[in-house]
Amino acid sequence: MSAILNHRITGEGAPLILLHGLFGAQENLGAIARQFHTQWQVHALDLRNHGSSFHTDTMDYPSMVGDVLAYMDAQGIDKACLLGHSMGGKVAMQVALQAPERVEKLIVADIAPVTYKAGHDAILEGMKQVDLTGVRSRRDADKQLAEFVEAAGVRQFLLMNLERIPNEKQSKDGPVYRWRLNLKAIDACYANLAAAPEAGSPYMGPVLFLKGADSAYIQDKHREEINRLFPKAKVRIIEGTGHWLHAEKTDTFVALCQQFLKGQDGG
């Protein structure tokens, strides 16, 4: 397997690394990447076991940090700004805590540095139960997945991971589609992904937490831990949004990030 994460680089300027969430891929942050790349060199990454990056049985935050640092080394990036959503936010936090000298500024979108209760059981079970041998279109897979995941928008997001097997790799009467992500490893390592980032010393650089007003991922009870690990953290709330705040209010999200990255909000 390749040790370097799959990626897409756009724009010129100081490096800004984008890290997607669980079940996602770098394409999920495409809308904000397109707005950032006019002023930044944007590096959108597929994290391990996601997108087109390598598959491995190991999946925890220290290992994923190793992947990001290896990518930075391969690109000759000594220091970068990091922006991570959900699981990608935890990876970004872990990078800052583990290798603070590599992080200029940190943006964390709708996740806190805490351990969460399992919240994806239905999704994982539904994806595992999809019988790929009978899937000839995304609609076929959607019908099966709907038995476990009610929200059509969530199913649409998950089905972005369904890819057609190249004709030369298909077997007679075998599946036409496969999951692009490593579902087995994600399922087996889920407890690691729900866990809080590991911390020795706090990260003393500037940090912006962005919370969707309608999301419960960042709560008042989490503020103490946020302040303990990130003493210079600011929390901004985007009204009228849930967990997918970067997609629901892209312009507001990007504007807050730009102000922070440029130091226009005191950051």
Percent strand:
15-25%
Question: What is the CA-based Rg, rounded?
Answer: 18 Å
The chain-level structural class is: alpha/beta
What is the first-to-last residue Cα distance? 39 Å
Question: Which term fits the overall shape?
Answer: globular
Question: Number of helical runs?
Answer: 11
Spans where pLDDT lies below 50 across 5 or more residues: none
Spatial strand order of the main sheet: 1-3-2-4-5-8-9
The SSE string, one letter per element, is EEHEHEHEHHHEEHHEHEHH
User: What is the helical fraction, as a range of percent?
Assistant: 25-40%
Compute the number of strand runs: 9
Largest sheet: 7 strands, mixed
Mean pLDDT: 94
Describe the structure.
The chain is α/β, with parallel strands linked by helices and 267 residues long. Helices cover 34% and strands 17% of the residues. The strands form two sheets. It has a seven-stranded mixed sheet, with helices on both faces. The radius of gyration is 18 Å and the shape is globular. The mean pLDDT is 94.
Q: Topology of this protein?
A:
Layout (H helix, E strand, L loop, with lengths): L6 E4 L4 E5 L10 H7 L4 E5 L15 H15 L4 E6 L1 H12 L4 E7 L11 H9 L8 H8 L6 H7 L3 E3 L12 E3 L3 H6 L1 H5 L12 E6 L10 H7 L3 E6 L6 H4 L1 H12 L6
Parallel strand pairs: 2-3, 2-4, 4-5, 5-8, 8-9
Antiparallel strand pairs: 1-3, 6-7
Jot down its keywords:
alpha/beta, seven-stranded mixed β-sheet, 267 residues, 34% helix
